[in-house]
Fold:
Amino acid sequence: MPKIHNADTHFAKLIKQYAILDTLPDTDIILSKAGIGIPQLRNLLNDSQVETVWNTRLAGITGVNFSIEPGDASPQAARAQNFIKEMVRSYDFPTIINSMMDAVAFGFCPIEIIWNINKKTWLATDFVPKPPEWFYFSNTKRLMYRSGASFKGVRVPQGKFILIQNRPTYQNPYGSKLFSKVYWPVTFKRNGMRWWTMILEKFGSPFIYGKFQKGASDQDKNDLLNALESMISNSVAVGPDESYVKIKGDMIRSQSGQVHESFHDAQNAEIAKAILGQTLSSDIKDNGSRAAAEVHYKVKEDIAKADQKLVAEAFNKLFALVAQFNFGANLAPPRFVYEQMENLHTEKAKRDKILYDMGARFNADYLAAQYGIDPGHIDVVSSPSFCEPCHAKTPSSTGP
Structure:
């Protein structure tokens, strides 16, 4: 009887082995059982579907405006706000924020603070997310840096790194790795493409069937076989007299391509669900498209807000450190705040109202693009004719 793998025993052995090195093992099943590490998960971005939907998710945090607000209404808080604004003026925010999203993709992301210190001020001149594979956690849940080729790591200095984690737990400070959930769909799709290519090579061309009359010699059969093989590449062939050649198309074999295509699309749909939380193209088909579009937009907005919260918390931790070192621990530190969609829509609506009063008119496509509304919900109508400035309808010449 084959030995059944016991997950509890597997992790117990891991913990025993790593305890000697003061290393907490990553409990991710894919990483521990299949020997897959973060570098292999990072390689998933070479898949076109993963890259496309991941860039869509990144756009939810890099394409939204943000501001740095004071911690409270005090003059000291306003001074700290201006100090932070000047400090981050040279920051490459899109690059920093994109790299921060490693915390979502791979579970956690340490961000190094580059300090510039003089007698009067502590300046964080840069904020640099580092690859999470350079770090691990000790048995006491402390962040450790992998020191060269040695197994013994180095504890990161206090005040030098900001750590952001994606849904960590007490048992698993490494966090939840989003890319581990798309590893198998990408792997299955890649293998499916390999088999699909083999099917196309085998059955992409029509099946050529040759037939001899009874009594044909082996030499005649070999000559016809060679001619048919040549016909595949040259589209012409010759054969012995009275030979018979027929080109056949096998419907069952042709339908196998549709099976592979459906399998390929199903894996792409799983990837989109894992990263974006939904996929319109694979789920709703032809039914309930309007209701599904509303759910689609709501899910996308919720995920974007969660990502924005993760990014904002990292910057807020940085601002708190800078404010503490320069203004004292009692100051309410400045806050990194993303502009919410509702506020953005209000400002756009005010602008569009001014443009409308000036004579501009907008179609459904513009309203859908600017306000995220399903075009099917918009019915653009023209205003009735009226007389300026009293807005009274033009009186009829036959009226009283």
Notes: The chain has a mean pLDDT of 77. Strands lie at 66-69, 108-117, 122-129, 135-137, 143-145, 154-155, 161-165, 207-211, 244-248, 335-338. The longest strand covers residues 108-117.
